[in-house]
Protein 1
Amino acid sequence: MMTGSRQPKVLIIGAGPTGLVLGINLLRSGVSCRLIEQRAEPQPWSRGLSLHARSLEILDAMNLLEPVRRESIAYHAIDIHGDGVRGDKPPLLSLDLSELNTPFPELLCCPQNRLEAVLEERFRLLGGDIWRGAELLDFEQDGAGVRARVRREDGEVTVSALLMVGADGAHSRVRELLGLPFTGHGDDARERFVLADLDWQTDLPRDRFHGFLLAGGTLMALPLPQGWRLIATLDDLTEDEDEDEDAAAAGGETGGADVPDMTLLHERLNEAFGEPQTLSEPHWISHFAIQRRLVSHYRRNRILLAGDACHVQSPIGAQGMNTGIADAFNLAWKLVLFCRGRGGGALLDSYHQERRPVAEEMLRGVDALSRASLVRARVLRGARDSLLRFAGNRPQLGRRILRRASQLDVDYRQSPLVDAGPDAALGWRRQGPLPGDRMPDATLLSQRDGGERRVHALLKQPVHHLLVQLGEETDHRSRVILHALLSRLPDEYLDELRITVIGRQAFETDAVDRIGARVHLWYDENDQFEQTYGDGGRLWLMRPDGYLGYRAPLTDADYLLTYLERLFRSDAPGR
């Protein structure tokens, strides 16, 4: 048996979007990793499509949004219809994505195979290593690391790493070997779908998602960069189809002789439009079955799970791939710190503590949405449609629905990793984000060159960012406090931390001389930051994933230093 050369710090099983996003973010921070992928070639089909606003923010932080956008088509609205689109009948519910409070108020339709191609190209440019056609056989772990036995074409190899992550999908081998329960709805609650990618001449706008809640069943029509994807619910599968579990929960193709025909899609389109529709022969057609399941634990010592290995759900709502990308973005910076000997097991534990509740809430929401979309009884359909019309006539409610679907309102307020310090006793709920919230974006001006700067753009540097808000006036007292804070930051923290000083106007200070290369000087000329975060002098610590880890008044820097000591404390890996 061979032993793998150039042993990585982190071994990632699975080279889908979750594994690739995780690998890229590790490499951005200088942590070596290797991806193991059982498929010999990238998958040719596109299971996932939709990238919500939060995923776009993550891709922007990775400097990948524009390459992904070139492979995508943008949706600016979501239209949900009742019994069709005959005449001038308006949708039951129309949600305008431009109302989202994010730098990227849209939904990108990017076929998963194209997204994976963009991610893989960046991963390899960063020096990433992918073993394709390689199968994880088993592994063992101890206080020193993980040793995985992998079968390749040239024989078996043992790969050693500090940590291993299973991002290997709904049928995760890593989860199976760990023996973790993957509980949820059984066969009686499964949803069955047929999908086809094809060409279709229609008057439906191509800048929006179209859903149809018909008496005969649900139909979704999604514009692709080329052509359309149609998805319809199936009433029943044959016994042969029922035995095909390769697609359970993840939308995989079934293949084989039991590929469905186009009859059902024609029937649904005819019901929606009241007249026959002309469709091309499909470029790809498949059926799949969905189960809703959630793993019991995201971590077992040095082995962690992410993406579909943790949670599977209905495609209605398009949450699965986006949740996996967010899993990876949350996990990456914690693995980086752990590999550098910081944080210890408590830091890794916070991944499960933060992300599993998000998956639980997501599954509940998708389950409710899915069940509502599939009701057949006339009375229940009428009640559902009335609720949708009500939501459509309440802009505030519509925005809440959009924020939840776009994953912008995900928070970690209950995480043991976030803290408000003494600020909690001073009414911090009244102004700005709470500890554990996603940090809102704001545009400011650089004092050095006068150019515009965005808070979210700081995430392109994958470290913690301390935003020092000086308040209404950069008076002598504020400068003294700033100087004292910067002078007390230990040198060892400066590799993990960048500081941005924000004033109401341009200001001069010599407080940044010691660590000037790591300090940005910005001013809030148009009060954007103050309107979003509140007034007064405050300290805001933004984590590498864009969430608020800590906040306190500017005068309480001692508490910040205590928090940083807990976060960045030296702790040899494995303790």
Protein 2
Amino acid sequence: MLFRRSYKRYRQIFDVLVKYGFEDVAGALNVKQASYLRKRFEKPEYVRLAKLPAQVRARMILEELGPTFIKFGQILSTRPDLIPMEYAEELKKLQDCVPKRAYSTIRDVIEEETGKEIHAVFPYFEEDPIASASIGQVHIAKLKNGKKVVVKVQKPNVEKIIEYDISILYDVANLIEGYMPEARQFGPKLLVSEFAKTIRREQNYRREARNATRFRQNFRGVDILYVPEVEWKYNSRKVLVLEYIEGKRFNDFLDSKPTVASKKMIAKRINNIYMKMILEDGFFHADPHPGNIIIRKDNVVSLVDFGMVGYIDHELRSQIVNLLYALAREDTEKTIASFIDIGVLSDDTNIRYFRSDFHEVLHEYYNTELKEVHVSEMFHDILEVVRTHKVRLPHNFLYLLKVIGEIESLCQKLDPEFNLTKNMGPFLRKLLKEQADPKYLVKNIHEGLMSFNDFIWKTPKRFNNIFDKLEHGKLKLEFEHKGLEQTNRHLENASNKITFSVIIAAIIMGSSLLIHGDGVIMSFIGIMGYLLAAFLGFWLAITIVKSGKL
């Protein structure tokens, strides 16, 4: 039963829900004492809290429940396709800042991880941390060679606390799905699963060190971004040691009253850094808030905190390029098609109404001057349509939209005239040019052939697995259908034609590769392949026409 694990913790959660005026949620979760609990919080202060907007109260609940719930709220803020936009915006205000742990406990972690006394590793170590978050805290130190570093140390027992709270979140998600059917469309258990995966990754500091190293390699020879060097010798799962970066945090840089020229330069550099990460590398820093951006004396940008990153695979990057290009050309149909390609339509999605609402939003922006278009606002309105029509978007794409919005905001603080749409243009044109290159097309054909080859070789094995399950009674199919024999004949004819078409396509792709190969013989074989494909295609067309099923 739910309360067996820890009555005290669960009671605290429901008390907090009722305190902030969510007794209806507590009641829906089958808490019989909900009305009784409400009476405990009828003090003027609690009555005042209950009058605040619901999204504000939701944020305050997560803050009061502690670090794990704050992290969960931060993840929720990146899912405006699932939760109302006003909630997503409010949850972005959650600050991952918690009380620091005593120096003695941090020292014990370092000594346990390194196997040495702390001063044998760090002759100088500042006991007071410069930052404290839910998982770890950061201290300034010096190595034996005198190099200044930052040491990120995981707090003691944090893994156990997080795992315990994750189990509570799963229980609550199960209750929500059981007692609040209308909430099932948001996938509470799936959200908790995504959160658990993210926070478990952040607990491994070796992974963060690998992220920093990869960024450093990606920007080698590029002078607009400096990534701190990782001191691998001293790193472990719970301790991360990075080069200390001299400079000013983003907000401190603004407060220092830099010249207009410097601010414009920094805005352009931040834009170029993230466009390269997103559109060229497919690997980006996913937490670009002002505290994680340092401006050095030479106006070079530096990033810190590499625990949260985003990945974009080759296919998604191509889809994003097509989407942004369609937006830039004000091509509504291709923009909608791109969003449908990227997302997953629910069974309840009405394509006609979805397209109609999407048209309305896009035309509102297409009739606006380019300099007046704010990308973050446009995506905000688009995501409202996406959520309304229950279109699910991949979390890495939503991370990307979140980052784009934050980058636009930062750049406009530096340069009020900054326009993200205009500044991403050169990167889009470069990628579109690459996609039109014959080598790119040949590469795609080759990848398609490899996938087809993989499908051909694995299909018999998959069928064998199905037949084995049928033979042993592990897979049962029960259905009733009249006229099944005739349906089978139609299916066989259709599948034969599809198979034949795939073979023709494979011959065409193979011939394309041969024509681009070296030597006259290879080119000749390629041409013969084209002729064979043409003959087979002509024969297939005649067969279809004769069947009368065109």
